Amino acid sequence: MMKKLSRLSHVRNIGVAAHVDAGKTTLTERILFYTGASYKIGEVHDGAAHMDYLAEEQRHGITITAAVTKAPWREHLIQVVDTPGHVDFTIEVERAMRVQDGCILVLDGVRAVEPQTETVWRQRARFNLPALFFINKMDRPGADYRQALAAIRQRLKGEPAPITVPLPDAQAVVHLIDRTLIRFMGEQGELLETQPCPDALWAHLAADREALGLAAAEFDESLIEPVLAGETPEPAALRAAIRRGTLAGRLFPCYGGSALRNLGVQPVLDGIVDFLPAPPDRPPAIGRRPDGSSEEVVLGGDGPLVALAFKVQLWDGRRHVFARIYRNTLKAGDPVEFVGPDGQTRHEQAARLFEVDAGKKTKVDQAEPGQIVLIAGLRFATTGDTLCAPGHLIGLERIEARAPVLGLAIEPGAGTDEERLLEVLDKVTQEDPTLAVEEDPETGQRLLKGMGELHLQMVLERLGREFGVQVRSGRPAVAVRETIRRGAAADALFTTPPLPDSKHLDLMARVALAVEPLARGAGTRVDVTPRVLPGGAVLSDEQRRAIASGLRGALESGPLQGAALMDLAVQVREAELFGAGSTPEALAAAAGKALRKALEEAQPVLMQPVMALEVIIPEANLGAVLGDLQARAALILDTRTGDTADGNAAIRAEAPLAALLGYTTTLRSQTQGRGQFSMEFLRFDIP
Fold first, then answer.
1. How many domains does the chain have?
2. Pair 448, 519 in one domain
3. Are residues 262 and 346 in the same domain?
């Protein structure tokens, strides 16, 4: 057990996340090169990055799927997960963070905290992940390290601790803990020249040193006196205090540099080892047993197997599952048991195990705690399932997928048959829980739904390239929901026509219910506690469940467009039974019929998805862009000008998604290609 823990203490499972284009993948490529995990540096703009192994990623220069790879540094093993920065792919970020122990957040030195940075920050906070910041692109005109630190404090409410200060003109950084000047030499910055920091430069950095010292002193009171006296504390004491603060999630070590110019990356690797947690440093995961009781699952602890499946991926056309082992070991050929999203218990066999390095996989015989492996042979396990030893079921917290907000009508293109398209779509939707395939109840067209235009475009490209399936698609259509404006009541009697054959039971049941509107975002509430007629009769559990299931079925399809209903409460007031004819099926049918009647009376209304929008544009274009947004029925929440070094303005707004389709093209033409925006689903609301 001790040996296992000492091995685990030399592992760092980390993610790299950021706003799109801040330079995550470029930083990851440098990490792999300097640790010797990759023998050459792949550039994103050349479409050659090691981590961007999908053809779509190489063509568009963005990261779509979270790639896993390993890198050795200072006798530690760093498992790096590179995640997408584009808001359409947030499920990838969420899944990756679920199995990480810490993360590096990359900021653009000019733009500092951007919209997607805030989204990733919220996801990090949800999983309580310790984090480092790498402030990238410090070689660009207008980059400002101190302004980026101030933005972390103001906009993210985090406490930054500057560890290195970049000097891009000298191709060097100053290390504030060790009082050294580190120059990055050689063709690819792989040769380091470390020397004591000159006194004049050290004095110039007094404010940064004090900020670091005071941040660390919060976690070690013995540092307060030397810091206030202007002395340099012992590096070991400073590191220990910073590590304590980082693991507590209250301190965030910051490094500056430029990944593309090979400046300042190696100190970040030291920071990963020094400050980010090893698997045993993380609090235990809480698992739920089938009887409702909870159990602490300590990573590397004793007990039967526990592993979390966090992603399904098709590899060479075959279904594979990414999983992280929490407890015990998993060997190739082992049986596993798990409870699926539908509540059913399934038994499967983990036929083969592989270690993964971006686009390559290597067969292994067994997986230890803390390891992330790829499992072949699981037909039903999906994102969020907890794989357990048979007879020892336990469930870790599931990974939540958001409901898709944008749909495209699709049909098979030339040379593709319907069956093949459906088979491929089934595989792709298993991989990505934010994708859904539905049929439009009015037109009968098949709809592919996802998180945004880029998301759907990438899926269609992949269908053609990987599966040879050509698809014709229509214009994007926004997913809608339905709700009600007022309360209403109804009752319905369900009967089957009498049959001459006396062997068949005539079904009969009556249900009376009421519906009430709820506040936005409240979801649906169903209350099945009716008065039962005739007097003295009682509903069995099965009959009660049948009524609830009939109501939930009716709530899936509203009276206006057949869209799902939300933000309303249903209360069943009366249920009348007619002897043996009131079967669970009859009660379910009566409940559904009564609910549909009540909804018709309750002034049903459509709700559109409303998006939180952030637009970054040159100040000169502010008037035109604001005017255009208001014409799109946007609610402007905030406009900031003059607080970024590159003369940009930032607009925060809320707007209906339908009004934002194709907005990228409009914004580009209004700002000569210099504007950018990101949006995130906020809620469904009545337009």
1. 5
2. no
3. no
**C-alpha separations of 244 from 130, 163, 232, 279 in Å:** 10, 15, 19, 15
Domain match, 574 and 453 both: no
Q: What is the CATH number of the domain that holds 103?
A: 3.40.50.300
Query: Which two three-digit tokens encode residue 305?
Result: 């197997």
Task: Tell me the angle at which helices 115-126 and 90-98 cross, rounded to the nearest 10 degrees.
Answer: 30
Q: Is residue 7 part of a domain?
A: yes
Q: Give helix then strand counts, H and E, for the chain.
A: 17, 36
pLDDT over 50 (residue 352): yes
Please say if the pLDDT value at position 5 is more than 50. no
Identify whether the C-beta of residue 323 lies closer than 8 Å to the C-beta of residue 383.
no
Among the residue ranges 169-183, 400-414, 582-596, the one predicted with the least confidence is 400-414
Residue that terminates a domain, selected from 541, 567, 602: 602
CATH number of the structural domain spanning residue 552? 3.30.230.10
| CATH number of the domain encompassing residue 296 | 2.40.30.10
Mean pLDDT of 377-400: 89
Note down the domain range covering 597: 486-602
Please tell me whether residues 194 and 337 are part of one structural domain.
no
Residue type, position 321, single letter: V
CATH assignment of the domain containing 613 = 3.30.70.240
Token digits for 687? 């337009």
Query: Which residues make Cβ contacts (< 8 Å) with residue 14, sequence separation at least 6?
Result: 78, 79, 80, 81, 100, 101, 102, 103, 104, 272, 276
- Does the structure show a pLDDT above 90 at 99? no
Residues 172 and 313 in one domain: no
> Does pLDDT of 2 surpass 70?
no
Instruction: From 570, 573, 557, 564, select the one nearest 602 (Cα to Cα).
Output: 570
pLDDT tens digits for range 620-678: 899 999 999 999 999 999 898 865 555 678 899 999 988 888 887 788 888 887 787 87
Is 397 within a domain?
Answer: no
- The strands making up 131-136's β-sheet, listed across from edge to edge, are 67-73, 76-82, 11-18, 102-108, 131-136, 252-256, 160-162
Asked if residue 300 lies in contact with residue 279, where contact means CB atoms within 8 angstroms, the answer is yes
Sequence-distant (≥ 6) Cβ neighbours of residue 92 within 8 angstroms: 64, 65, 66, 83, 84
Question: pLDDT tens digits for 548-578?
Answer: 999 998 998 889 888 889 999 999 999 999 8
476-515 pLDDT tens trace? 888 889 999 999 999 999 988 776 665 667 789 999 999 9
Residue 285: partners with Cβ closer than 8 Å, 6 or more residues away: 296, 297, 299, 326, 396, 397
Q: According to DSSP H, which parts of 52-89 are helical?
A: 55-60
* Whether residue 473 is found in the same domain as residue 491: no
Residue type, 661: L
656 upstream amide cis, omega within 30 of 0:
no
Q: Is the pTM of this model over 0.90?
A: no
Residue 400 belongs to some domain of the structure: no
Within this chain, do residues 62 and 160 fall inside the same structural domain, yes or no? Answer: yes
What is residue 48's DSSP assignment?
A: -
Which pair of tokens denotes residue 29?
A: 């490529």
User: Would 498 be classed as within a structural domain?
Assistant: yes
Query: Cα angle at 98 between 297 and 158, to 5 degrees?
Result: 110
* Average pLDDT taken over every residue of the chain: 85
| One domain for residues 349 and 432 | no
